[in-house]
């Protein structure tokens, strides 16, 4: 080692500028002669004694000294024209470098020797005044050295190797003409291979500077490959670059912690500072970012291969199972990781496979998207983490995301009254919708706190507007200026201008991003009729009916919200995975005119879902509950049978169905086990039973043959069969209320023994209002009346699981914790920013008339308003508590925005400067953490008796702000629409 | 008080006579659709409608609380902004408007007449919008120089807008229609119940004399083109003679901007979409970049 150190210290450039070229060459040749003498004395070909003589230390150091000096001379040699300098020419013609390499091989080829040699080449390559790598006598020994180093394991050598490789690659990047040489020097040893590249691959996932150097070096080559088909082809066909990169991700992922430390109550996504605390995560992120960078610069062939490997080698085998782990905790962690990855990836090609994975991949026959949506409805932290993931997804402004999440349910326009179709495109010329949103402000919330920062903020807003006016030609902006000159803003308007400003910016951003979308989504394009067909075919292929789910779910949603729930009851909303049990699983497609085998025999809910449910229940109750506690499902089957029998009578379909129902009654196994499975955990109430009843409905129609569970049956009834639809409608119409009551009333009597049966689970479910709220399980009958206007199959209008779960969650605003509400508000305002008339009209047009079974945002907000007013009427010192809550929120707002780095992408990061509702939605994190740190801070603590009241008060304080945001968005849409084409 | 509100009332001169007797061309401009379309919907079954949602929105919702009322200026402002965007969208040939700096209720405009009797006429005008828009009367349009025309008041220069919009109906009538009407009177001359009887009579009886009077009027208007604007306002429309130093450059920039916009189209891709046009399925777009 001392040798190495001395070597590097002595190799300081000597000032040779004084010496003339001729002298230098003389000195060089002289030195070489000295060296050569020593070399030859040990060369077995030239000296027969050589093999018996050992190399003395003196000889070694003599050679070393000469060589060092020679290298200095070579490095310092300068030439004016393109020709080689005399020293270089001598080096090349005498093949000096190769001879030196062989000499070092002849000695013991230790790590120290390797280090020396690597160092020597590094100096040559980086310091030399003339290009050296073009010359094979220099390149070849270098290659030999590199390949000799490939198996090495010493950290010192590895570091040096990485540095040299990095240097070589950067030279390559600057001078691609050398590439050819690099490629073919090794041809002598066999197949063409790209040695520097292969040597770099093992370092890809290395941590620390070595890994960084190697990755940088690889990026040089990647950008080279973009221009060079040969290199690209070689990398794709001749190296394991892509597989190593992708499977490396899997390896690194598996070392990530499966559970995260408790990060505080309102933690919902991984921020930069979270990542920094987990070294494994840093390493993973490095590799992911490297993949991103490779995809950014590499040749399309490499890009395609890498993306393919990441999909098939990382997402499918690793992330998918991780998303379906057994414990809520693990699933939550995976969701948070996935969210982080989505935010870290910026290359569209890479993002695309992540989105493809989330949007259309199925795990155990269930779409990952559906699973993720259903998790919003859990009472755990998993809910907020899932919401955060969706916030990220929606913030991408990606057409495919919006299509799967929302638009596919809106395109058929089933959600609007037929006469209102054209209203989808209508603009709200006179701010009528904004007015309606604002009119939902509960009177009890009208008073506002004046905060100290308020005046300043207003000032900055004003100046911002003014600046904008000067610089921007958009015609209308100065009018805002006018408005402000008027100083007409009363206290209540204080931040409304900010909301308008932000809405303006956000809509413009979104408009810009949506320019690449394939269609305007205005209710005409894509054509509702044609698209409906395409979507139905797709659904068929997917084996489910997401477009036409039952309306019942909406009623369930409204039930839970209509529950007067502020009476201090336990409010554990254990609506676990409703969507799985009712709305989302394929068997719920019973409203669909498309019969399928799935409608007959619901598939087993995926194993992990059942597992999770069980876990969830344990979690909630803090103790394990025997599964058998939920096994009493015979009753349900009896009900199904009764119902089936009734239906059978109605339809005059006799024997076969009897057999079928008997079958079902007596042999509740296999497929029926599923029903058992979801009933055992579901709240056993009318809804569930209705679900059952409803699910049995299609059987009457479909099970024309006992072999109904035969797949082939699927084809016997065409989805578009007019006759089938007609009969289906008839049947629906035939089921008047009386029939329903007949069906439902026995449920009560049957259900009562169940309640006595120590079904503890019931205690955790919500008390549902009994008589008044029993809706027709088939959706309002009138829907079928309207259906007569439709030239196509009428289906229960359904705006999709996502909308429905988000709105139902929103309706429970007063029971939600602050961060759930902030996320919900964030998501809804993000959605309301989209300029597509279908989305805009659904969320913001308060005048449009929807189908009765469709619940609109306005209706949900109206219900929240009502609840707030109820609260105000019953809650003592409501005004005091409200002011406190407002102060609390203002405090959060004034805190420095710690999570500006939450979003790594520009389009989202642009929105960091925000105000009350939105600001908190983005940056809820730091605030409560700070609140914990400074418990003494007199402003922060809320004095509500319970967490429950505190949440309600915070929601009440947020609500008016949310309304302002929506109103502002509605107003800006009316002005900005013309920019959208 | 807010000048936003005062401005218009100060600027608008009251007109005493309303020509309500005149039948209008209203119908052609905006075919009367039933304004109560929403009410004619099939009645929604009671059990399906949440209590909170009003079944039919009443046209003039009275603000129920104080909070609500203070947003009035915003609603008016945005209504006018929306109107303005509609005007921009219409791209009426030869018609240009610009809201004033001081009030969104006052718009400056100019009409270029490119053929017909009034060919080469450049008529500046001002539009005054009532402050209870859109529930008030129709906007007024006053030419800076009274044009010789049967429907233009020879003294005040005001155009008879009312005959086209007997009653201003929100959602059906828009300001761009007023502007379109103002343009049309120069191409299709109507002489019934004129504000300028002389012009009307001449047009009926002696077209030649009418024509020459029109030519004089156009000349007069054009001679006042470079006058200072009648109403002093930073956004008033001002004409000045062509100044190569100033205008050549500006003109070039305007043309260049248009070109560069066209060029940059398609190059700048910031959004995300893998949906094939015409498809409603995600990731339906073929990846053609791979086959390079």
Automatic annotation (TrEMBL), chain A:
Residue stretches in coiled coil: none
Renumbered residue ranges of the record's region Disordered: 578-607
FHF complex subunit HOOK-interacting protein C-terminal domain ranges (all copies): 799-890
Matching InterPro entries: FHIP, FHIP_C, FHIP_KELAA_motif
Polar residues composition-biased segments: 585-595
Entry similarity comment: Belongs to the FHIP family.
Protein's name in the database: FHF complex subunit HOOK-interacting protein 1A
């Amino acid at each position: 080692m001392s040798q190495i150190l001395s070597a590097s210290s002595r190799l300081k450039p000597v000032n040779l500028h004084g010496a003339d070229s001729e002298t230098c060459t003389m000195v060089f040749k002289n030195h070489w002669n000295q060296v050569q003498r020593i070399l030859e004395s040990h060369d077995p070909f030239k000296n027969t004694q050589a093999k018996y003589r050992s190399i003395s230390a003196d000889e070694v150091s003599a050679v070393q000294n000469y060589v060092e000096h020679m290298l200095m001379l070579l490095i310092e040699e300068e030439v004016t024209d393109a020709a080689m300098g005399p020293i270089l020419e001598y080096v090349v013609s005498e093949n000096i470098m190769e001879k030196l390499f062989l000499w070092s091989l002849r000695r013991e080829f230790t790590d120290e020797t390797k280090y020396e040699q690597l160092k020597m080449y590094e100096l040559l390559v980086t310091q030399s005044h003339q290009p050296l790598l073009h010359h094979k006598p220099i390149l070849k020994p270098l290659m030999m050295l590199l390949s000799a180093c490939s198996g090495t394991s010493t950290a010192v050598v590895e570091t040096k190797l990485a540095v040299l490789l990095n240097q070589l690659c950067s030279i390559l990047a600057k001078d691609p003409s050398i590439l050819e040489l690099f490629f073919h020097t090794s041809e002598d040893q066999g197949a063409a291979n790209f040695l520097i590249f292969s040597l770099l691959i093992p370092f890809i996932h290395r941590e620390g500077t070595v890994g960084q150097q190697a990755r940088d070096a690889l990026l040089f080559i990647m950008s080279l490959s973009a221009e060079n088909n040969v290199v690209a082809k070689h990398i794709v066909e001749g190296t394991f670059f892509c597989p190593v990169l992708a499977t490396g991700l899997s390896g690194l992922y598996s070392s990530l912690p499966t559970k995260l430390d408790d990060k505080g109550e309102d933690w919902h996504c991984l921020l930069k500072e979270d990542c920094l605390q987990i070294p494994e995560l840093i390493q993973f992120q490095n590799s992911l970012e490297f993949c991103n960078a490779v995809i950014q610069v590499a040749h399309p062939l490499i890009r395609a291969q890498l993306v393919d490997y990441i999909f098939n080698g990382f997402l499918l085998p690793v992330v998918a199972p991780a998303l379906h782990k057994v414990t809520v905790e693990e699933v939550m962690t995976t969701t948070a990781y996935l969210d982080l990855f989505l935010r870290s990836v910026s290359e569209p090609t890479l993002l695309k496979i992540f989105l493809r994975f989330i949007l259309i991949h199925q795990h155990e026959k269930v779409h990952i998207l559906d699973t993720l949506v259903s998790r919003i409805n859990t009472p755990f932290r998993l809910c907020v983490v899932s919401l955060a993931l969706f916030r990220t997804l929606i913030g991408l402004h990606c057409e495919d995301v919006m299509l799967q999440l929302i638009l596919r349910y809106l395109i058929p326009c089933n959600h609007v009254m037929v006469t209102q179709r054209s209203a989808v495109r209508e603009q709200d010329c006179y701010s009528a919708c904004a007015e309606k949103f604002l009119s939902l402000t509960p009177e009890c919330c009208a008073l506002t706190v004046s905060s100290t920062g308020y005046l300043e903020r207003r000032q900055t807003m004003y100046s911002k507007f003014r600046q904008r006016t000067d610089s921007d030609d958009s015609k209308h902006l100065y009018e805002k200026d006018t408005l402000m000159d008027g100083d007409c803003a009363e206290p209540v308007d204080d931040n409304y201008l900010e909301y308008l400003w932000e809405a303006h910016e956000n809509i413009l951003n979104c408009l810009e991003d949506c320019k690449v979308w394939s269609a305007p989504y205005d209710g005409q394009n894509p054509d509702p009729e044609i698209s409906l067909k395409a979507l139905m075919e797709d659904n068929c292929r997917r084996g489910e009916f997401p477009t036409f789910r039952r309306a019942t779910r909406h009623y369930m949603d409204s039930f839970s919200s209509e529950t007067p729930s502020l009476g201090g009851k336990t409010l554990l909303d254990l609506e676990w995975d409703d969507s799985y049990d009712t709305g989302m699983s394929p068997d719920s497609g019973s409203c669909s005119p498309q019969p399928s085998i799935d409608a007959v025999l619901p598939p087993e809910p995926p194993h992990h879902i059942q597992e999770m449910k069980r876990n969830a229940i344990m979690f909630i109750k803090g103790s394990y509950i025997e599964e058998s506690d939920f096994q009493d499902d015979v009753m349900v089957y009896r009900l199904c049978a009764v119902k089936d029998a009734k239906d059978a009578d109605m339809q005059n379909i006799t024997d076969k169905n009897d057999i079928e129902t008997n079958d079902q009654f007596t042999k509740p196994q296999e497929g029926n086990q599923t029903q058992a499975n979801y009933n055992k955990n579901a709240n056993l109430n009318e809804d569930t039973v209705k679900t059952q009843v409803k699910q049995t409905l299609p059987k009457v129609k479909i099970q024309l043959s006992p072999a109904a569970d035969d797949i082939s049956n699927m084809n016997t009834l065409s989805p578009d069969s007019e006759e089938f639809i007609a009969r289906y409608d008839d049947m629906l119409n035939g089921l008047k209320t009386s029939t329903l009551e007949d069906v439902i009333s026995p449920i009560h009597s049957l259900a009562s023994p169940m309640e006595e049966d120590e079904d503890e689970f019931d205690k955790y479910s919500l008390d549902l209002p009994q008589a008044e709220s029993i809706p027709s399980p088939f959706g309002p009958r009138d829907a079928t009346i309207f259906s007569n206007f439709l030239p196509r199959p009428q289906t229960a209008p359904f705006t999709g699981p996502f909308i429905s779960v988000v709105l139902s969650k929103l309706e429970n605003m007063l029971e939600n914790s602050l961060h759930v509400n902030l996320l919900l508000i964030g998501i809804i305002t993000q959605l309301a920013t989209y300029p597509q008339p279908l989305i805009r009209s659904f969320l913001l047009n308060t005048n449009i008339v929807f189908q009765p079974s469709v619940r609109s945002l306005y209706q949900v907000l109206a219900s929240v308003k009502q609840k707030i007013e109820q609260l105000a009427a019953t809650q003592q010192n409501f005004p005091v508590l409200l002011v406190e809550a407002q102060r609390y929120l203002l405090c959060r707002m004034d805190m420095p925005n710690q999570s500006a780095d939450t979003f790594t992408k520009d389009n989202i990061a642009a929105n960091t400067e925000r105000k009350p509702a939105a600001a908190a939605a983005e940056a809820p994190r730091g605030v409560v953490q700070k609140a914990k740190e400074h418990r003494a801070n007199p402003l922060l603590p809320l004095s509500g008796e319970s967490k429950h009241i505190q949440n309600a008060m915070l929601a009440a304080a947020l609500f008016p702000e949310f309304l302002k945001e929506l109103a502002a968005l509605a107003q800006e849409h009316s002005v900005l629409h013309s920019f959208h084409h | 008080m807010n000048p936003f509100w005062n401005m218009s009332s100060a600027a608008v001169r009251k007109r005493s006579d309303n020509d309500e007797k005149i039948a209008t061309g209203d119908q052609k401009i905006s075919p009367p659709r039933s304004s109560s379309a929403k009410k004619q919907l099939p009645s929604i079954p009671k059990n399906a409608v949440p209590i909170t949602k009003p079944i039919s929105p009443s046209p003039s919702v009275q603000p129920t609380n104080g909070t609500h009322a203070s947003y009035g200026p915003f609603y008016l402002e945005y209504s006018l902004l929306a109107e303005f965007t509609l005007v921009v969208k219409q791209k009426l040939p030869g018609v240009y408007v610009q809201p004033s700096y001081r009030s969104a209720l006052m718009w400056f405009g100019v009409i270029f007449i490119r053929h017909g009797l009034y060919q080469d006429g450049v008529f500046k005008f001002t539009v005054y919008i009532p402050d209870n828009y859109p529930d008030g009367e129709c906007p007024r349009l006053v030419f800076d120089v009274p044009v010789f025309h049967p429907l233009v008041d020879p003294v005040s220069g005001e155009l008879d807008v009312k005959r086209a919009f007997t009653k201003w109906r929100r959602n059906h009538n828009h300001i761009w229609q007023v502007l379109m009407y103002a343009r049309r009177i120069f191409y299709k001359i109507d002489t019934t119940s004129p504000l300028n009887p002389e012009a009307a009579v001449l047009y009926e009886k002696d077209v030649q004399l009418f024509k020459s009077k029109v030519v004089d009027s156009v000349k007069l208007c054009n001679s006042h083109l470079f006058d200072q604007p009648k109403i002093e306002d930073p956004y008033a429309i001002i004409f000045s003679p062509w100044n190569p130093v100033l205008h050549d450059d500006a003109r070039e920039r305007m043309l260049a901007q248009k070109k560069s916009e066209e060029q940059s189209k398609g190059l700048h891709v910031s959004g995300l979409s893998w949906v094939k046009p015409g498809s409603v399925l995600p990731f339906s777009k073929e990846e053609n970049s791979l086959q390079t």
